[in-house]
Each structure stands twice: as C-alpha cells, then as structure tokens.
Amino acid sequence: MKTDIQIARECELKPIGEIASQLGIDPETIEPYGRYMAKVPVQLIDEEKVKQSRLILVTAISPTKAGIGKTTVSIGLTLGLNKIGKKAVVALREPSLGPCFGIKGGAAGGGYAQVLPMEKINLHFTGDFHAVTSAHNTISALLDNYLFQHRKDGFSLREIYWKRVLDVNDRSLRNIVTGLRGDGVVSETGFDITPASELMAILCLATSEEDLQRRIENIVLGITSDGQPFRVRDLGVAGAITVLLRDALSPNLVQTTEHTPAFIHGGPFANIAHGCSSVVATKMAMTYGDYVVTEAGFGADLGAEKFFDIKCRKAGLQPRLVVIVATTQGLKMHGGVDLEHIKEPNTQGLREGLKNLNRHINNMQGFGQPVVVTLNRHETDIDEEIDIVRKNCEDQGVAFAVNEAFLRGGDGAVELAQTVVNTIDRIQPLPIHFTYPENDSIEGKIEKVCKRIYGAAAMEFTKTGKKRLEAIREIFANDEAIRHYPVCIAKTQYSFTADSTRYGSPEGFTIRIRDIILNCGSEMIVAIAGDMLRMPGLPKSPQAERITIVDGEIEGLS
C-alpha cells in the first residue's frame, strides 16, 4: 500500500490563486505563502452568507490506540459532497509538532483524503504556531521583567498563573524554577504545550483584530500581594502581543488531494483545551461554501461538547448535522479486545464496543442534533461486522454509511455524502440544547458536563481544586462577566472517565477536579480532571526516530 507521502506526491498541486478563484475569492486579495498556501483576510467574511451555509460537525467515538481517522473522514466527506455536485469546503485545525514527532507522525488526513502540501502543513506551515509560542513567551518575559524592575517599589505577585509554552512534547519542562543566581526574580513555573496556551484559544475565538487585542488585554497573569488580578493591560503590552499575532489571525487556505479548497487554522487539543478550529476559519468557509465540514478533536464527549457549549454558543453558529466516526477496530477495543487481536473477526467484542458508540449518539441527540454514523472502513473489515454496526444504528434511529475515502478519495465517500445531504434535507435544524445555562455556577456547569455527557455518578473537587474555586470567587466576586464563561474540562481522551484505561461505556464513577484555571482572555473556565497534564511526554519510541530525508524527500510524516 502506498504511503500518505507517496500519494501526496502523485497529486499535481494547483497554484493557490486558482484554488481561491474556485471559491470566488479574488487572488489579488490573498497573501500567498509560497505557491500552494495563503492567508485570507478576515474582512472577507460575510455574515449573511454564513447564515445560509450548512455546517456539518465531524466527531467520533472515544479514540483508542487503533486510531479513528476523523480528519480523513472530514476531508473525504468534503470530497464526496463535491463529487455529488455540492459546493463544499472543509475547515480543520493545524497539526501540532509535538504529536507529529511524538506519536502521530502527521495530522493532515490520510490516503486519498488529505490536505496538501502535507509536509508543510505538518511542519511549520504559515507560522501560526510559532507566532502563538513567541507571543505567549514574550508575555512571560515582559512579566518577569516587570517583577524584576518593580521589586524595589514593593510590587510583587503572590501567585503567578502565566507559564511558558513550547510546541514540543517535553515532560522535563512541566515544572521548573526561573531566575536563579540573581538573574531575575526566583519563581516556580513550568511549560505547557503550545495548543494549551490561552493565546491559542484566543486566536481560535477572536472575530477581529480589535477583538483579539481586547481579549489579550484581559488575560489574567497573576494575583497581586493585595489580592487584585494583574492583567496584560497592566503591563501595557497588549498592542505588542497583538502585533505578533496579527498575521496569524487570518485563516490559511490550502487544497485537498482533489484540488478542492480547505481552510486550516488554529490547533487547540480537545483533551486539554477546546479542540476546535478558529471561528474565523469556519465562518470564512461558510461564506464561500454551501456545505462546510469541520471537526472537533478526539471523542464526542470532549471536542463535540466544547464545539457546542463553547464555540457555537459564543460564535452564534448553528450546525445542521453531526457525523460520528467509528471503526470496527476501535469498537472492538472498547469491547475488551486486546490491541493485537482487533483486526481479527470478533462479533462479540464488536457488539460490546457499540455501547461506547451509542452513548456518543445519545449525547449528540441530547444537543438536539441529527446524527449520521459513518464506519471508516479498513481493509480487514468484513461485511458481517459492518452489518452489525449498521443494524445497531438503525435500532438507534440514526443514519449509517460506510466511508472508503482513504482508499478511493471522493468516490469512496459518495455514500456518506449522499446520506448527509438526505438527512439535512429531511430534518429541520433545532436550536442547540446546551449542556448548562450560561448563568449557572462554575461547579454547576462542571457537574452537568460530568453527569450528562460523561455519565459520571458524581463530581467532586480535590482540596486544591476547591481552594482554586474559592479564590476565584473571592478575587473576582464583582466581575459579572465571569459568571457567563463556559467551562472547558481537560480530561483524558481515551475514556468517558478520568481514567485512561477504562474503555467502553463505564458507569458509577466519580470525576475529580484537581485544578481550576481562569482564562479571562479566551473567556472560559478550564477545569483539570484526574491526572491530565497540559504538557505531554514522548513515548518510548517517538515518531521522530522514523522521520528523515531520503533522496531529498521527507519520510515518516504519515
């Protein structure tokens, strides 16, 4: 079988100006980054056209080590929609270098359903991740300098919230000490990975340059010795940070393996952040596409919940349908089958794993959304097992389609595309049923997500988590805006629980919240559940060991 890189090299790319013209965008208005990538100015978004476009969310069952292929399906569905005569555009997140060199090796789709140029998208792309990293760490340096320069004036922070970030999986940097040997003010701090940066969330939620600067000004960096919040605006550097992120705010235009337009912008992880591509990229795609396919990270309990409760709520988006991606191999793992045996026929394990799928279906229907389940087909799949999944979906009252875009491109997604269109035409959209009211308490919002989405029997705070919550209430008692912030729970992607080893559809468990982080720039409350870390580590054999250059060509990014 050909590798993703080999397939990508078979595709003769069109100049990015031609791709823009396909959408109806004047090539003179875009800012090319080489021949095949470009920035598109946010001023081209037309809110009236956005309202007419049909937005489709692609999510998935809880991921396993077998993989799911959500990005491949998102691209494939877009190709399939174009095959049946619809004007469709895909809007995706940018890959992070950490996972690309750690576990995944790449995140631009796969097979004949990829976004291109694949190597550039997976590596430095248009520099958005570097801009976020640089802007975030510039704030860190300016804050440290402010503390150093004003220490003789008696100014200090009793608690510093703001860490540093790096787009590398590096467990050694989770906890560090800065300012040793007299080089500044000594402080315990650490690094998060760049997708966890509040600036990444801000980039993905900001609607304009003015909104970007407003949000940056509101970032809370720490608490002063007299108990007052200290923000970026107090440093007087919000303008400088906005300058660093100005170009990054514009969505990136690229193309698929079949030369259809694709917007790729922003990259928060759904297990540690809100897991959705930017609002401006989604609205740009909706301005120029009659059908727009977007994805939310990891399983539907994480990315999809945050897509609805955070992104749609704050951006006023109304999707028309949810596609849930499953694989027979992933379902078998949720049914208790060992990883080394998931390619073998096992109807009992498959049926047991359907409980995970069905919980996700119920959750998406709980948001008031029509659902289509698609089976991302592998070459080892057998008809008997596919029919079991199909019959289960019929019993659940949802449509089902097989997706073979990985092997056949758009032709392999025609069944899925037609099923999606038929479902949208048949079912009128309903207002989103959010998981919690906007003015609920912080603990009320967290508890509702834990119980209604994860299926937990209870939610509780650890001693540290409770202390954080009480501090927020005390310090920000007069800040009415915080009352309306949505919650963003950081939790393992592998389970409905906070225990990554509990596959399937567990019941009777308790979710423990160990920390609360107030993000006044991105306007959300981040709650960290269990032992979830915002700086991942590398595996025993990282993908970096297999990435190299052979005869002038990059290998291993697939």
Instruction: Report the total helices.
Output: 20
List segments where confidence is low: pLDDT < 50 over at least 5 consecutive residues. Answer: none
| Largest sheet data | 12 strands, mixed
Instruction: Tell me the number of strands.
Output: 25
- Gap between N and C termini: 13 Å
Indicate the radius of gyration in whole angstroms.
23 Å
Helical content (DSSP H or I, runs of 4+): 25-40%
The oligomerization state is: single chain
Shape: globular
Structural class: alpha/beta
**What's the overall average pLDDT, rounded?**
95
Could you describe the 3D structure shown?
It is built from 20 helices and 25 strands. The strands form six sheets. Strands 1, 2, 3, 4, 5, 6, 14, 15, 16, 17, 18 and 19 form a twelve-stranded mixed β-sheet that branches. A four-stranded mixed β-sheet has the order 20-22-23-21. A three-stranded antiparallel β-sheet has the order 7-12-13. A hairpin with an 8-residue loop joins strand 9 and strand 10 (187-189). The longest helix is centred in the N-terminal third of the chain and has 22 residues, at 128-149. The two termini are 13 Å apart.
